[in-house]
Q: What sequence folds into this?
């Protein structure tokens, strides 16, 4: 009975049982199918014309979230593209949200190992970010997966971690969820005093929020506590009150659970008519709403009940119903396993495609860096060659500044990924490192500039001396060739 953490994405799920659910921060509650389809269409239209990578990431994971229930295959492929693009551009928030959608979709499909894998990947991201609500949410989601796997001790471990974050940072939006989820785990572990304490606290929060669905869910949990501790009157009262609130909230799934709880309670106290009435009611609601697992639970109860009552026909009817439902579930599980194989292969092909594009882009960037690496020393050599001709010193200074700027930017490009990883994406440390690099480069540049200008002046003096010697030599040669002209000038 794990409960979604608000705000979330997807249809409502039952409390007090292992249900396919998970919380995804910053999502919206899904409404009617038409509204979902309309929103999906608008997201697709926006995605087709979007140019900015970060916006593409956001649109893809949002669209994936919209398609989680109706088209899970498309949702997974689209959200994986969102995740790969977010990783490519190092968009951390986009990575976290894409991982949340992937985890939610796999949880809905019943692939708990994959759901756990993506939740743990998201947890690694959120542990490095200073967003307590996100951290609390993913910890709850991880606990929910363990509940689905019936590993209640590990579920409780993650719930406790989330509770610590909620209490430390006062993440009040998740107070209800953590309390009702912890109550659910203690209920499954038959630690009823602890279960009651958390259920009661969740009920107080639900009443403060005036949320009928939450109130009904918490009352169902408390009713379970009273039934298991043999407090008949209190259990009946809470079950009946829970059904009223759940029907107001149109929560048929938990209504099935509450009515079956009443059936078990009356059967426990030998009230056969009431027991069969509420079990049949739970069964009919499950059939109407298409809840196969709930139908199976109520049918199994009725099978045992009628067998005890020596009602052979009814017992045989529900015995056959249980067999059919089990076969249906097994067939669905087999089809689901085939679907998982297909989905995994499709996701692998998407990843291969993205890796090819990434490799192509990396080669392009490497060629650009190689060109820059060749250009910088070439530019410096050109500057040295220019020192041998008569050019203004100011031009030499300008060229020196340009070469320094190009070299600094080149170093930034090369070092930035390493610096980000070394500083764990802490901007202030990144700035300090690059300022230190600049502090080394600037004096070095001044020394090189001073050396270059001195060399230019020496070259100019040498050129001037060489020119003077050449002129004298040319004059001597001319005199030797024309001695008469020289004598005339003397006379």
A:
């Amino acid at each position: 009975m794990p409960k979604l953490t608000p705000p979330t994405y997807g249809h409502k799920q039952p409390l007090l049982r292992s249900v396919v659910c998970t919380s995804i921060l910053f999502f919206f509650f899904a409404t009617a199918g038409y509204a979902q389809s309309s929103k999906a269409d608008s997201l697709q239209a926006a995605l087709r014309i979007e140019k900015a990578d970060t916006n593409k990431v956001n649109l893809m994971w949002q669209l994936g979230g919209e398609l989680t229930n109706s088209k899970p295959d498309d949702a997974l492929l689209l959200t994986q593209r969102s995740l790969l693009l977010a990783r490519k551009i190092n968009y951390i928030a986009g990575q976290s949200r894409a991982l949340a959608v992937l985890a939610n979709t796999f949880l809905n499909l019943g692939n708990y190992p994959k759901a756990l894998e993506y939740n743990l990947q998201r947890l690694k991201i959120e542990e490095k970010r200073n967003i307590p609500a996100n951290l609390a949410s993913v910890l709850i989601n991880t606990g929910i997966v363990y509940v689905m796997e019936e590993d209640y001790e590990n579920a409780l471990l993650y719930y406790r971690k989330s509770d610590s974050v909620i209490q430390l940072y006062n993440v009040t939006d998740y107070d209800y969820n953590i309390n009702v989820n912890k109550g659910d785990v203690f209920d499954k572990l038959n630690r009823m005093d602890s279960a009651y304490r958390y259920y009661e606290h969740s009920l107080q929060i639900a009443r403060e929020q005036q949320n009928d669905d939450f109130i009904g869910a918490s009352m169902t949990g408390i009713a379970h506590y009273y039934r298991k501790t043999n407090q008949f009157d209190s259990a009946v009262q809470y079950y009946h009150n829970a059904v009223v609130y759940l029907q107001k909230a149109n929560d048929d799934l938990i209504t099935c659970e509450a009515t079956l709880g009443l059936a078990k309670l009356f059967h426990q106290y030998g009230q056969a008519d009431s027991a069969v009435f509420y079990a049949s009611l739970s069964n009919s609601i499950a059939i109407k709403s298409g809840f196969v697992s709930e139908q199976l639970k109520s049918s199994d109860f009725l099978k045992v009940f009628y067998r005890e009552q020596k009602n052979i026909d009814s017992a045989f009817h529900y015995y056959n119903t249980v067999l059919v439902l089990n076969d249906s579930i097994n067939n669905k599980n087999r089809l689901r396993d085939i679907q998982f194989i297909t989905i995994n292969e499709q996701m692998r092909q998407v990843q291969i495609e993205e890796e090819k594009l990434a490799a192509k882009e990396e080669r392009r960037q490497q060629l650009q860096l190689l060109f820059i690496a060749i250009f910088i020393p070439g530019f410096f050599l050109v500057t040295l060659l220019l020192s041998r001709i008569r050019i203004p010193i100011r031009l030499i200074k300008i060229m020196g500044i340009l070469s320094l700027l190009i070299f600094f930017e080149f170093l930034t490009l090369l070092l930035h990924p390493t610096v980000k990883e070394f500083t764990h994406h802490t901007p202030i440390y990144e700035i300090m490192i690059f300022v230190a690099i600049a502090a080394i480069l600037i004096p070095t540049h001044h020394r090189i500039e001073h050396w270059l200008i001195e060399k230019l002046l020496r070259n100019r003096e040498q050129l001037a001396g060489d020119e003077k010697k050449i002129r004298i030599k040319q004059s001597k040669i001319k005199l030797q060739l024309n001695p008469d002209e020289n004598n005339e000038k003397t006379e």
Notes: The longest helix spans residues 312-386.
